[in-house]
Design a protein that fits this description.
alpha/beta; four-stranded mixed sheet; single chain
């Protein structure tokens, strides 16, 4: 319980992981800048469970810092930035003396770049199981995804089961996060992109939000085609659909997929776990979609249906 943790990034993901780890008794510091830094310094870290009408706002005690200095030593540094922000942060992380950086970042490029910059053996790959938003007053409304849907997922880049992975798994469970260890995080993250990139592009193509998309038959048909295409690529490329529960995406009838997607987008769950992030992180989702398209091209595959969804050139047939 004496583990020192830095959360490098204070958006929804960083705030929730930092807050719940602090509530579990860990020594947590939260790095923030700009307005978010001012809000945290003046009001503290404010957390409230979404989709629970009776939930009350909690003020969680965490230390707030404006920077990571080279000699600041932590047991775990959680990197909770958007994908397009990571490159700029790598030199700062590399200069720091901490031994373990947990990258909670969606990614399509493997981990060589991170390890070559930060240092071999200092990187853990992970992905959060949290959705939500920060309001204008700095209050974080959040929900955790369940174990059957998308738990917090982590693993060593080489797939080994190390003591630090087991320890981190225990820490996150203790803090209340449904958490699993995955032995092939690279395949897991690329599979995740095959899912979330089309889901986000469909909202942009619709031009509204998850609720309006739920009634847009034309875009939902194109989304269904794009999802079947991206999962077919992950399978045929040899990357491997991970976890295997998503293998059905390659073969499910388009009419069935459209029906299911319509009901998902019409739900309050979609507002929390799809809509909020998609509409407030368009730069990240465009960055990730371009990375997925480039990955497919390197494997000799053109993601035509995703490209049509991305550019708005959709076909309702």
């Amino acid at each position: 319980m004496n583990k020192r943790i830095l959360i490098f990034g204070s958006g929804v993901i960083g705030s929730v992981y930092g807050g719940l780890l602090a509530k579990a008794g860990y020594d947590v510091s939260l790095l923030a800048r700009g307005k978010r830094l001012k809000d945290l310094q003046e009001k503290g870290l404010l957390l409230r469970r979404a989709m629970r009408p009776q939930a009350e706002t909690e003020t969680v005690g965490v230390r707030v810092v404006p920077e990571l200095c080279p000699d600041d030593a932590y047991d775990y540094v959680f990197v909770t930035l958007r994908a397009e922000q990571v490159e700029e942060a790598l030199p700062v992380l590399a200069a720091n003396t901490s031994s373990c950086f947990v990258f909670m970042v969606n990614h399509a490029e493997g981990y060589d770049r991170w390890e070559s910059t930060v240092g071999k053996g200092r990187v853990i790959a992970a992905f959060p199981g949290v959705g939500g938003r920060v309001d204008e007053e700095g209050k974080v409304f959040y929900s955790l995804t369940g174990r059957l849907i998308q738990p917090t997922t982590l693993g060593e880049p080489d797939g080994s089961l190390t003591p630090r992975i087991r320890e981190l798994h225990r820490m996150l469970l203790r803090a209340g996060f449904p958490t699993v260890i995955n032995r092939n995080m690279d395949a897991w993250q690329k599979t995740h992109l095959a899912l979330v990139c089309p889901l986000a592009c469909a909202i942009y193509c619709d031009g509204g939000n998850s609720r309006t998309l739920a009634n847009n038959r034309q875009v939902l048909i194109q989304l269904s085609k794009a999802l079947r295409e991206t999962f077919a690529f992950i399978h045929r490329s040899g990357i491997g659909i991970t976890p295997g529960k998503y293998r059905f995406m390659r073969v499910v009838p388009l009419t069935v997929m459209r029906f299911v997607l319509s009901h998902i987008y019409a739900s309050s769950w979609a507002e929390t776990f799809i809509d909020d992030h998609t509409r407030h992180a368009r730069g990240e989702m465009m960055h990730l979609t371009e990375a997925l398209i480039a990955l497919a091209a390197r494997h000799g595959c053109e993601l035509i249906e995703l490209g049509r969804l991305l550019t708005g050139r959709i076909d309702s047939k």
